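I hope you will forgive my troubling you with a question about protein structure. Could you please explain, in whatever detail you think fit, how the structure tokens follow from the sequence? Thank you for your consideration; the sequence and its tokens are set out here.
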Amino acid sequence: MSVSTPMLVTFFIYILGMVLIGFIAYRSTKNFDDYILGGRSLGSVVTALSAGASDMSGWLLMGLPGAIFLSGISESWIAIGLTIGAWLNWKIVAGRLRVQTEHHDNALTLPDFFSSRFEDKSKLLRVISAVVILIFFTIYCASGVVAGARLFESTFGMDYQTALWAGAAATILYTLVGGFLAVSWTDTVQATLMIFALILTPIIVIVAVGGLDDSLAVIRAKSVENLDMLKGLNLVAVLSLLGWGLGYFGQPHILARFMAADSHHSIRTARRIGMTWMILCLGGAVAVGFFGIAYFENHPGQAAGVSQNGERIFIELARILFNPWVAGILLSAILAAVMSTLSCQLLVCSSALTEDLYKGFLRKNASQKELVWVGRLMVLLIALIAIALAANPENRVLGLVSYAWAGFGAAFGPVVLFGVCWKRMTRNGALAGMIVGAMTVLLWKQYGYVELYEIIPGFIFASIAIVVFSLTGKAPSAEAQQRFAAAEAEYLGK
């Protein structure tokens, strides 16, 4: 793709805007609570859009449209599973987690919450969960750096190493400086950009082909299987794709948004906004890939880019169908998707290192100012490690994203779900669930005889372990049960 001045200008303005937001947030960051959770001050709109944007990475504008373009509508099962999982997470977990974390020593991180909720004097829960976060999220961050590098490489013709730093630098800067507020405010802008791109692009593609009926006719003529929801899939394959939705209950970067809401009363409105945004974005991504089939079938001379790599479908359609200024805005949406996810993952890693390890074990009486600066240093450290991992694009980092999603979903998902819904759950139950969930994912990935996504058996076995170990051990203390009951009563409005 040739580099055009409008695209360069658009990208530069967008990146400058994100960094500016970071410096504005810097002025509002007074203590570590502000840096990690924004002082629990997020309203409904910011909570909803930042949760959505931090969830949907470059996969939304590249991976999903590419899969639909290559294989047809059957690849949309994963979008259905994610939508169901996200709604259940908002409905069951979001409000309860917001209240429970405040009642349990104003917990700022998931390991912090687990330690307080289950009265873990040994700090085993805090250490194990912090280590799980660091391992999986460093891999996750590396995948985001690779995706950003690929965008700069293909859009501006940069060599990979230069693109690596260009794609990561702005995200690191505004996360480093502004912390959670910067990440959440930029997520809101980025979510708006993403939904604009994903609604506008498929409409223009359909118009370019000649309308909806003509588009469907061309797709059907190429292969009627493109419209078959079960093309090449059996029951296990469908369940595996739907199973992605289970991952939501255990994703620390999404759960952090719930914890940061200004009140659990904001969650209901945030859920409606967030789910509307998500459905429109996923629907738009599916439509880009689906109707892209019709466009390139009618214009085979323009299909060289997508023939080489189906994941370029959105990039190619933006470049071909829009003037360079609008194309620059649309392509900035891919960068927005990458940056929004990478920034919150960097922050969650930083909080695990600072709150759960540095303050928890090394400097219990550290000042707020010290913790903020240690948090910033940790953002930089994790970012540099992620860039080092991403330096060799052949190391298949992107292929590990589904592994990390399953790892978090199985290790943390059942612990969070039972932890906010069942007062009888104990520390041993939480430990057993976390270990069994993580080990099941690892072993199933290596030795699973059934081609079932490892998050499903991981989630099931972890849930069984939680119930068995909680019921066979000593019940939680009266104080712990009282705190849980008080939080639940507040959530229910009693």
Notes: Residues 49 and 98 are 17 Å apart (CA to CA). The two ends are 60 Å apart (CA to CA). The chain has a mean pLDDT of 85. The longest helix spans residues 160-209.
